[in-house]
Amino acid sequence: MPADNSALSGYQYSGPADDIDERDTDDPLCVTSYVQDMYEHFRTKEGSTSVRPVYMEDQQYINERMRSILVDWLVEVHLKFKLVPETLYLTVNIIDRYLAKTEVTRPKLQLVGVTALLIASKYEEIYPPELRDLVYICDRAYSKNEILEMEEVVLKKLQYQITIPSAHAFLVRYLRQLTLTRRLFSCHATS
């Protein structure tokens, strides 16, 4: 069902007051002068970092339910380590892209998952979990060396393409826009 945009029909962008990045212009970490270019790049790159919805059909030894159990476990691990949301989104993306390209056996699925978490944590976190903690969280099913070897395998298979336009990045952006839009309409309605 299409969204009702009748409230927006007469709305026109009128400059900085409508700019969702205006309040961040003095923060160099927000790189507001590049944000439009960044999101345009994200939109164009989105297709190349997504997988076919039915990619699990190509897996001989694992199925969608096993993947779901793995992701549920990774959510728990993510919460236990108090990682940022971006880490979880990137972890799942790495898993999906790897599984779309490589057949994985059931005993190696958790290894792929914990390795994806390690890669994503190194990319997104200031203090990623230590390797020994990841070994422990897997109940010592895999050694440090096995995780490090799998890290190299996964990164090579993904051609070191770790920077992705995640759903989280778009959600944060759209929520900022929605908040600004609601604030503008509230001010307009009361005047």
UniProtKB/TrEMBL annotation:
One of its GO terms (biological process) is cell division. Keywords: Cell cycle, Cell division, Cyclin. InterPro entries: Cyclin, Cyclin-like_dom, Cyclin-like_sf, Cyclin_A/B-like, Cyclin_N, Cyclins_cyclin-box. Residues 1-25 are annotated as: Disordered. Residues 1-12 have a biased composition (Polar residues). Residues 72-156 form the Cyclin-like domain. The keyword Transmembrane does not apply. GO terms for molecular function: cyclin-dependent protein serine/threonine kinase regulator activity. The keyword Cell cycle applies. SMART domains: CYCLIN. CDD domains: CYCLIN_CCNB1-like_rpt1. Pfam families: Cyclin_N (PF00134). PANTHER family: CYCLINS (PTHR10177). Belongs to the cyclin family. This is Cyclin family protein.
